[in-house]
Amino acid sequence: MKVFLERKGIVDIKFNGKTVGDLLKQLGLNPQEVVVVKDGDIVLSDETVDDLNEIKILSVISGG
Amino acid sequence: MFCHCGDKAVIETREGVLCKKHFIEFFERTVFQTFETFDMLSGVKKIAIAVSGGKDSTVVLYLTKKYIEQKKLDVVLEALCIDEGIKGYREYTIRDLKRICSQLNVPLRIVSFKQEFGYTLDECLKAINVKSCRLCGVFRRYLLNKYSRDYDVILTGHNLDDEAQSFLMNVFNANLDLIARQGPITGIVYSEDFTKRAKPLFFCKEKEIFVYSLLRNFNLRFVECPYSSSSFREYARNFLNTLELERPNVKYNLINSLLKILPELKMVNSKAEIKHCRICGEPSSRDVCRACFYKQQIQKYDLSS
Hints:
The complex is a heterodimer of chains A (64) and B (305).
Chain A: E1 2-5, E2 9-12, H1 20-27, E3 34-38, E4 41-43, E5 55-59
Parallel strand pairs in A: 1-5
Antiparallel strand pairs in A: 1-2, 3-4, 3-5
Chain B: E1 11-13, E2 16-18, H1 20-37, E3 46-51, H2 55-71, E4 76-83, H3 90-104, E5 108-112, H4 113-117, H5 121-127, H6 132-147, E6 153-155, H7 160-172, H8 176-180, E7 196-198, H9 206-215, H10 232-246, H11 250-268, E8 275-276, E9 283-284, H12 290-304
Parallel strand pairs in B: 3-4, 3-6, 4-5, 6-7
Antiparallel strand pairs in B: 1-2, 8-9
């Protein structure tokens, strides 16, 4: 599964779960610190995701 | 998850999960109530927004303008940016900032470390051994204070996460006098030397501000300050965000605790004497202000190298 991660760019991972929450857990990301965009829409942790979706994980934290 | 209206939710807030429409309403209500609860704009004729091109100050700029227009306030609104001269970072945020100010039709003034002190932050850090965020903070506060005197109030983009982190860091460092300077309205001692500083995003979480800026399509690029990873603040941020996962509302509780002890802390610290720096004449608690002290150190290095 291809995921866009801020700071890293596009990464290819073997996703074992079903939801955004599972994905963040697998990537070791704190939901407080990121926003997940699925096919252009902001989604929450219960949203299901798969290989067909375009997933972007954006960092909430300011760069300053 | 779904909002109470039945639409798909975009964020979890202290009022539950909310859709785009209800989140925007919640967020704007929070900021406008903060303006009013803390009298941030009462009797004010000229407002400066301390801007950087990042999401926080952009949201303050946008919502202050919206509030002024809604309330039909007869005030002047301007944006003030401090350019530290951090290569690979500030030049990009300033590009976004110029675009946003132009879109909102707000005049922008940029003051730089280079023009004021003779050196960019990058150059300063090559010359003296001091923590980047400390030096940057001293110079930034100095310039903001100096160039905000023409205004009745200066609004900054500090958010709930910033305040909770600062509170924790000041507790860890036993800096009670610095805690006394925190809060939605900054400072302890009233003086004509200081322009009132206020924080309209005091009750807004960093994530809420980020989502709001996405939903409003501000199109701000993601760039990181190359010095940010070395800061103590990052430890405080990680600690609080990890704790917040286990115990939601920890950050709200922390700033509510701060608000409860703040009046007494301000009272205890209100007798601080304001002197003036014998070099530049700016207000300072010392004979020579920290900005002039660091500037002298840098100049010494510059002359000897």
